[in-house]
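User: Please predict the structure of the protein below. I'd like the answer in structure-token form so I can feed it into my own downstream comparison script.

Assistant: Understood. Taking the following sequence of 153 residues as input:
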Amino acid sequence: MCIISSLKNETSCGYDGLSNMMLKLCGSQISKPLTYIYNKSLTYGICPDCLKYAIIKPCFKNGDKSQISNYRPISLLSGFSNIFDLLIFHRLQHHLVSNNTLANERYGFRDNVSTESAIFIHIKTIFSAWNNEECITGLFCDLIRTFNCDSHD
């Protein structure tokens, strides 16, 4: 029920036409059957086919709107898929945190740490080395078009 209530209201509907608001309104009635289905799915390692469907929409990034390479695909999943994704995310996150699996240098997808934290620590390290007159070496990558390299077939 907690995951259902955390869904964003303003997101688009998936192929099933059910909005997150609708799922929230009937959350108390559907939470037990969904819990059963999701637990069975995780137990047997089988994802129901209906959770794999998505509507793919192009989202303009920048540049010339007539160039297809200036668009990125957005997948509109059903609310049931989003709930399942959040369930798996929370379980995986809990497992990694409780077993102290994540390195301290890992900043993504963690509570109370962010890319700002990573940048702050990086800048602090650079200034510390600079103040101690140590050699400073850096490698910076522009990842703006990273996903354009993937085959989308």
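That's the full token string. Strands lie at 54-60, 71-77.
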